[in-house]
Amino acid sequence: MSKIVFCDFDGTITAVETFAGMLKEFAPDLSAQIMPQMYARTLTLRRGVRQLLESIPSQKYADILAYAESKPIRPGLAEFLAFLQEQSIPFIIISGGIQGMIETVLKREGLLDKVTAIYGVNLHTQGEYLQVHSDWENETELVAKALIMDKYSGVETIAIGDSVTDITMARRADLVFARDRLIDYLQAENQPYIPWDNFFEIREYLLLRD
């Protein structure tokens, strides 16, 4: 194994911001207050996402998964995963969003078994409101992406992302494919990246480079 791909989910694998859209749907008032602070990085992802999720009644969890069920994925994912399998390159999803939403979309597409591992936020639904659980929490993130990447050493790391949750992953990676808000953050830090819009483009880049 000479390479490994770490990929965000919401707005990266999905063609729309599935997790942010869900929060606006199920916690609209609090989202309007908190999300701009997270994007401006004046409120940590750890604190903001936890506040938002734990404001949602547990009985809404089935509706949350149903919300994810209809969200489209970005073109070329199936072909990209097939290419990675041919090259024996692991594909690992690291998301600051809900693990159940990720699995719902991948099952719908028949791609769940093509993914090497998934790291995301787990929710406990036994109480009146959702309770957040993450095995990879640090001071600022509910899912500390760079911490997870450190588990996989000695290979070239490729990161694919689109937003504020992907900044630490992009800083740690050897090669970064960025779109949307992540481009702005990386430009502000003078961090190198490759712009992309669909997974066909990433596959083509890696094919031509190798």
Distance between the termini: 14 Å
* SSE string, helices as H and strands as E: EHHHHHEHEEHEHEHEH
What value does the Rg take, in angstroms? Answer: 16 Å
Low-confidence stretches: none
Q: What percent strand?
A: 15-25%
Description:
The chain has 210 residues and is an alpha/beta fold. Helix content is 43%, strand content 17%. It contains ten helices and seven strands. The chain is globular and about 50 Å long. The mean pLDDT is 94.
Structure at a glance:
This protein is α/β, with parallel strands linked by helices. The chain is 43% helix and 17% strand. It is built from ten helices and seven strands.
List the helices and strands and how they pair.
Layout: E1 3-7, H1 18-26, H2 28-39, H3 45-53, H4 61-69, H5 77-86, E2 91-98, H6 99-109, E3 117-124, E4 131-133, H7 145-149, E5 156-161, H8 167-172, E6 175-178, H9 181-188, E7 194-195, H10 199-209
Parallel strand pairs: 1-2, 1-5, 2-3, 5-6, 6-7
Antiparallel strand pairs: 3-4
Features:
single chain; 210 residues; alpha/beta; 7-stranded mixed β-sheet; 10 helices; globular
